[in-house]
Amino acid sequence: MGKYDPIGVFDSGVGGLTVVKSLIEILPHENFIYFGDTAHVPYGNKTTEQLFSYAYNITDFLIANKVKAIIVACGTHSSVTLPKLSGEYSLPMLGVVKPGAWAASNITRNGKIGIVATKATVNSQAYNKEIENINSDYEVFAMACPKFVPLVESGVLEGDEVRQAVAEYIGPLLTKGIDTLVLGCTHYPFLSPAINEYVGNDITLVDPSYATIVELKNILAEMDLLND
Fold it and tell me: Which of 20, 67, 71, 74 is catalytic?
């Protein structure tokens, strides 16, 4: 690995581009290879076996293209496959769950955090576990949002269909008294305007992508791999 080698980024489709946006802003001199696995979108309803098959194939592809680090720009893979994969490969591999959990824990004022994510991420309880490790007094309320990814992949980011889906999934979280809402799938920031309109100014939205790239920058700096 060398400092001029690219950074690999992968997700099921366009969602990971929200992470690429932060990558370009924070590490403007870096090159990257983006793998959008549109053949298998959405990931949230896939079996664990399917997810591992996709993850290994994509990781091997990126390594064959000489990446120096891999960002798993997907909440589902960060929750389900990354814990195992990161121990099997020698290069840095980062997901979005841990940075997102840290960001939410630092932002919340009342200790009540909502998570919107795919079914696979919610079932894994990855965010719940990470936030509990940070502060066991915090309460975490998670909601699977199966309609969100298809809406984003179809380019439907506003209108009645979006507003109805937002109300369906986020309404129950508001009744829990949350003051912080983690967008636990990298597709969901595309729906931020509609979500913000629904939740109002008292709820802070957390997009884990920024915190993920900050962590990557620190790791690359420690390894003398920053392309600066």
Answer: 74
